[in-house]
Protein 1
Amino acid sequence: MSRIDARLKSVIIFIHRWIGVGFCSLFLLWFLSGMFMLYCAYPVVQERDRLDRASVLHPAAIRLSPQEAYMQLQTRASPDRVRIDVFDGRPIYRFRFGRDESLVYADNGAVQDDFPRDLTLRIASAWSGQPPTAARVEEKTEEDQWTVSGEFEARRPLRKYSWPDGEQVYVSAVTGEVVQYTTRAARMKAYLGPIPHWLYFTPLRKHGNGWSHFVIAASALATVAAILGIVAGVWSYSPSKQYPQVKGRSSIPYIGSKRWHMILGLVFGPVACTWAFSGMLSMDPFPQLRSATPAAMSTPVTQALRGLPAPASAFTAKSPEVALLELGSDFRAKEMEMISFAGEPIYLAAAGPNETRIVPVHGQPVAQFDRQSIVDRLRRADGVPELEQVRLVTQYEAYYVDRHNTLPLPVIFVQLKDRQHSAYYIDPKTAQVVQAFDARSRWNRWLYHGLHSMDLPWLYRHRPIWDIVILALLIGGTSLCITSLMLAWGVLRRNLRRTAASL
């Protein structure tokens, strides 16, 4: 080896060593929490949770038509979305205007524009199934561990209701909605998995930009450390076994912890590198490469399917109570949204996640929209490029995959003949786009989700193979970090001794 090569190798090892000394504890934390992340989720209230806990709509309780309810708002603005569900035991219309929502009771036309404590207590009690008298209430105007992200800002102040068994329900005093729900077990799991893995600790996370920059920097350093470690390991490895050892010759120049660190680094270093890099990508460090959001991508397709929004008056010909009666007693609808398909007014009723029925104002209930009608509508629509590919997807695939099996099946796959080769997965039960990809988001799918979550369709379909593979890699990475910690302590101890000796 030349003198220049030896010096370069020394520099690589030096940088790798000191990054490891400074961040080995953090890297170990990521691997350990990653094991829990497989089965422990951060508490979050999703639409499916709201639907699971919602009450059933009763036709007899609905006395106002959508048009009559809309008239109570005394506005000329056109709502973006209209639906009816049950709120505090009564049917209520929800009119969405941009980010704002107006509520009108469907039984007497009263407008619900404030949410006093007794009302939010009833809402929290109904959600948890716990007696309201046993609840302890706190007014939350600032972040806590479970409401630290920016999505809660517009909903503050929050009222946090806690029960002796550990259940906690957060209700917005602005919207009257349950915005967060935790149990003692869910909080414990979050502290083992998502919170340490995402560095989601309140003092850091509440400073959004600072938290983002720290995670990006730490992930970048982890990536650099892994790359340099792999380079140093490959450079030091001798296939001809040139290094003398006590029991013969070896391909590895080290003994003890260093030897194990090199072996584990050569085996698991590439995985540590890809996980660190893909974790950095989750924070969107390259805005110039950012793809359009699925919602933004779907706008022209959604507009083509929906057509012009149907006004509230278009539903006068068939009232919501009649639509519910047409569904029959076997379908226990919990909400109905007033939508349009190709400009025709339609009630979209939901009884649970992926459990919907279509009730046309001028027709009988059906389970789903005609698939060919969806495709034909897109082919004829202005503003939608020519369709390059259309097919029916009956099982999860590379760009449509879900480990928890919550995404609907079957769906219609449509790819457009545009520059980005935009692709959409459309649920025929709702005529809504459930997934969307373009050229940039395809890269993100593989560089982030593919590398970080190993969400490969074949592995997902053959569990527990996926679990075994991920756990084996995480255990290997954990072992690598433990040897890093041992070596880091050795380096620090030697330096502390030298410092003490020089004093």
Note: DSSP finds 15 helices and 17 strands in the chain.
Protein 2
Amino acid sequence: MTTTTMSILPDELVQRAGALIAGGRLRAARPLVAALGRLEPNSVRWYTLAGRLALGEGRLVEARDAFDSAIGLTAESGEEGAALHELRADSRIRLGDLPGAAGDAAEAVICAPGRASAKAVLGGVLLEMGRLDDALPCLAEAAASEPANPRFLQALAVVQERLGDADAASSTLARAIAAVPADVALRNAAILLALRRRDFAAAAALGEQARRDGVVDACTFGMFGHALSSLARHREAAEAYAEALKLGPEDPYVRHLVAAAGGQRCADRAAPEYVRAVFDGCSDRFDHHLISLGYRVPGLVRNVVAAALGERRQRVLGPVLDLGCGTGLVGVVLDDLPVGPMTGVDLSPGMLAEAGRKGIYAELIDSDIVTFLATDPRRWPMIVLADVLVYFGRLDDILTGLRSRLEPGGTCILTVEQLASAEPAPAAADRWALGAAGRYGHSGAYVESTARDAGFAIDALVAETLRFELNAPVPGWFAVLRRP
């Protein structure tokens, strides 16, 4: 093997090794890169190939160091220099060094001002850094230079949406789909944007067109089904979810939505992976979205806490555990009351990051709430679960866990959505069911009996409107439970 490899000319080695790395055939590329190292040790070409190979194999520090050496050996300020800076930027992005990556991307633009990929890399790094106003012109210029490049257009649409121009983002994705109609990621991005805008009719139309064109995956059908379900077209939604299940049989997100549509037996709770995917995907716009729906739960919680402070004549009530804290909306409404310190628990890193930015919580913990209740030994005078149990069907185990984590006399405040009269996926007649929107509904009688069986006294169990969807109230049960 060595004799055969060494008989190949260096130029041919570079060409073959580069093609293998680009095609993902890293194992086959290794001996060729090693052979080039013997023929041209410490050369720009060898360092570049060695860096690309290390990058493909996840050896990120080695990759960055190899590109350092290559850049140090070249005085090129044109395309070659730009390409090397782009490669080093890639390694730094993966290492989490965004400022360093931005510097490399800027150097790439300086080396080759007309190079679209350099502008796209710079725009992408600035986007990751949250510098949206700076990212926009970079990505717009990259997309103008290569109007058929789907990744440039998709990144541009992300920036436009985050800057609040959803119409421009939708138009950009439409141009991208027209230019590259076979790209399923673009189709999914367009559907997701329509769902975020709550334009379910547009999302359904995009999903239907993707289905007709045959440019679909499990994600496409899952979002298509969600749009149809939101339009109350439940039979069609069930068919879309069934197609999603065929393409992604092990995907917890798809399996939950199929169960919600009545396509299979529903579980006792939503899979943590499903909940994490849902909330990580909307964490950056979650507060605005809920406020736009007339979300009432934090205010209801505040009323109970304020009353408890008055009745008990306590100067401070706490510590308080906010289970499923999300972006911290409960913390916000309690912040001016003598309550705390507050601990928030959530399984979505994106939501926890938003909660952390508010500076209200003394502690934020990334955990599934069932796991937290089973493993954290602390007891609390107050526990809040605002819109958390809509992802649980059976409540007996979790209520038992909650009681064990309350101090004697402690209070637990929780909400559930009311069980509809005709849910499409009944799981326990007259008790709880998984609704078409992927959330569980519960009967008041079930909440009351399960709470009593878990050892709670019920201070309040009242019907309340939790929020509004499609201009219709979403009815729920607001419960105040006490450990005697």
Note: The two ends are 79 Å apart (CA to CA).
Protein 3
Amino acid sequence: MSRIGPRNLLDVSRETGIPFTTVYHRIARIEAESNKVAMLIPRSSPLGMVRLVVLVAAKPGLEDIVLHALKIPNYWRAVERCEGAFTHHSIHTVPIRFLKTFKEYLSTMLAMNLIKSYRIIQTGDSLPIFPQFSSYESSSGKWTFSWDEWLQELKSTTPPSSAIRDPNQSTSTFDKTDLEIIACLEVNGRTTFTEIAEETGLSPQTVKYHYDMKLKPSGVVDEFHFFVAPYPVEMSTHHEFMLEFADSVAMNRFYSLAEKLFFVDQVSKVLRKNTLLVRTRMVESQVSNLFTFFSEMTNLGLLNSYSSVRLDMNSRTQQTISYENFDESEGWKWDVYENLLQLNKL
């Protein structure tokens, strides 16, 4: 499902050789227990948007107000508290034509003394990495952490097998119906066309047309995040690392190896730089080894530098694409006056 998509279980059956009824019933059982298996991660550039990772340091005592302030422009996708040099970590997809306006909004937060500092990192779309379970021994219930072996592979002189690049900035023609379909698939990547039709008030034929003829060809609906964790949530820690590589070869070698590094959850490329933002999940007992691993990469000349924030995933809030900010005649909207009015009310 990770390779070919979560929507067609018949294709999954053909690909794996597992009987269709077995595939269907097992996925149904997982969905009954956890509500969903996968969610869509829509590509930003075809929608005329850019993905931003924002780090802010709130003034002491104003943390809750800053949390609300980050959400006011309503182009946020996820916000959580974090530990380190910053207090909040957030992800936004902002229309490219409003990028300067968004930066000015954060400057206003700084001028109002809500925050002490902030950083905006412009990235490509987040690419999910499906966890590598070959490192798990089911009979003992233990994981194998092959830190030295992974370092040796990163030192390899063979060319990397895959590459991560800046996204093309070409945009596609889309409308509010497309955005509503995207929002439904963000809630649950396996939502059927019939269910989307009921949610949006469209016909199943209209949903299918928009999906097959517009969203799929544009690549907007290619990436899905699967809710599969390699170890229990209560044992896990989550960090976001910024890895600044010596060159593009070292960066792409790490990206090629990411599937083996089962602590890697998602990867995004910082635009116009040999730098990756890497979302990690790790067993608490191995966190020190994780930092040693990146330190050794630096000693070997594979990294120029690295830094991180620890994410409080229990505080995370998420929302789907903000289709209510889209007007059929005007496109994406930004009401500067209304946003500043709400900010002042805080």
Note: DSSP finds eleven helices and 15 strands in the chain.
